[in-house]
Amino acid sequence: ALVHKRTFVVADTPYNKLCSSKSILTVNGQFPGPTIYATEGDTIVIEVINRATENITIHWHGVKQPRYPWSDGPEYVTQCPIQPGTRFNQKIVLSDEIGTLWWHAHSDWSRATVHGALIVYPRKKNDYPFPVPDAEVPIILGEWWKSDIREVLSEFLQSGGDPNISDAFLINGHPGDLYACSKRDTFKLTVDYGKRYLLRMVNAVMNNIMFVRIANHNITVVGSDGAYTKPFTSDYIAISPGQTIDFLLEANQKPSHYYMAARVYAAAGTYDNTTTTAIVEYSGNYTRPSSPLLPPLPAINDTFSSANFTGRLRSLADKNHPIDVPLKAKTILFFTLSINLRPCANNSCEGPFGERLLASVNNITFQLPRIAILQAYYNRIRGVYGDDFPKDPPVAYNYTAAVIPRDLWTPENGTEVRVLEYNTTVELVFQGTNTVAGIDHPMHLHGHSFYVVGWGFGNFDKDKDPLNYNLVDPPLQNTIAVPRNGWTAIRFRADNPGVWLMHCHFERHISWGMGMVFITRNGKGRDARIRPPPPDYPRC
Ligand code: C2O
Ligand code: CU
């Protein structure tokens, strides 16, 4: 295994898009940021240098960082921010991740522009469990506001309502030619007829699940979230923020130019309903039709197309890629995911009824502490967090009823963690609720991948639904969209001592408090304990 060294200089950079200029945070002047390439089991050391005027942290999304939570990155959870003018040597420890992951800022909303792909190759070159591609291309979906993202965030927090709608979605940093003032700002993928391409897609969008489709071409999904999947073909993709999808594209259609198009899937809230495009263009001499063909995308509110695509993901589960799903779970957790409201003075907030929108897990609205939870845990500093995160919601109710009495879901603020004993098997059922508005929640767990053993619409039935769990080939994910007014069951082993954030990957939902933290205790023996902190660990 190799050690790769890289430098990330974070700085404010002037940027022009959609005929409008602003200053954005970039890494090494690039947007999207640099792609990092590594091989299974390698270590990456990134010297993060903060030359900006604001705090920053970098998270390695989907990297388990075994026993080394120090480099995970979420601000005030595993570290205090890297302050302007300071630096942090972040060590990223790869273990069994393979395929496409990514990195992004994990402080305020700076991940809007501070993100990039992390590609992990198999130990033997091209040793893929699918036909070897002729070329590989990262495809990063992004979201763009003409205004400064810091202003978007502060207006959003002030207003108590939804954030301002973005001005464009992007493919590899480009909006495509369907927007005003973006004619030449399009990502183009040139393909040779007869060749096969592995597209490694990352959804770095802030607030939406996306539908993606390439005109005239079916694609074959072969991986997600840093693990292989059983190949399946589809004419569209649904991808959550935080999630990655690896898929094969065969250039087997009539040489021409075709649009790749992406648009939101959204069942509630206010959102940008525009379509971003890239061009897939066959090489060679032929007459191109004047304009490329635009593929039809599933309807914006098509919950079934979103959930069904996600529901088709399966682990390979063959003899070279065995799975290791806990067949029984020692710890059973049931977490409700809710959007909430809190009254504002003079009904002056912009949420429904003039109130403030909030979100919660088991009715607790997560508050970031002043000192990183990991620092407090490791150094036994008291009063930073509580260890009372409940294993169930305070009361059971009909979570997906059309109307839910408000007293059942009034949230409390809290910085509570759930402690897991080393190596326990955990089953966690996420239950979406219909408080305020039912909506999908792409839930992400740091420090682990988990098996998605079941999902459904409506209320989870703890007697019946577990009988239908898939314990044969459940997909291994780090981010999973819990369907609107539905549930998703995951299982994992708490084999990674540390402090690990779990949250909705919609940026507005985590800002509203839809998150919590697991602390996995040390086990017995040196290989079951947190490693010591790095010398330059940013403290508060
Ligand atoms: Cu992709 Cu907590 O993050
Ligand atoms: Cu959410």
Describe the protein's architecture and organization:
With 540 residues, this protein is mainly β. 6% of the residues lie in helices and 39% in strands. The strands form seven sheets. A six-stranded mixed sheet has the order 10-9-12-17-14-15, with no helix packed on it. The protein starts with a strand and ends in a 20-residue tail after the last strand. Copper (II) ion binds next to loops. Residues 11-124, 136-285, 389-523 form the Plastocyanin-like domain. Its cofactor is Cu cation.
| Cα radius of gyration in angstroms | 22 Å
Helix content: under 10%
* Mean pLDDT metric: 97
CATH class of the largest domain: Mainly Beta
Write out the strand line-up for the largest beta sheet, numbering strands in chain order.
10-9-12-17-14-15
Number of strands: 32
Supply the number of structural domains.
3
Ranges where pLDDT stays below 50 over 5 or more residues in a row are none
Number of helices: 4
Distance between the termini: 34 Å
**CATH superfamily heading of the largest domain:** Cupredoxins -  blue copper proteins
Strand content: 35-45%
**CATH fold assignment of the largest domain:** Immunoglobulin-like
The secondary structure category is mainly beta
For the largest beta-sheet, the strand count, sense and barrel status come to: 6 strands, mixed
Q: Rough shape?
A: globular
CATH architecture heading of the largest domain? Sandwich
List the bound ligands.
Answer: CU-O-CU linkage, copper (II) ion
Organism: Sesamum indicum
Cofactor: Cu cation
Main location: secreted
Subcellular location: Secreted, Extracellular space, Apoplast
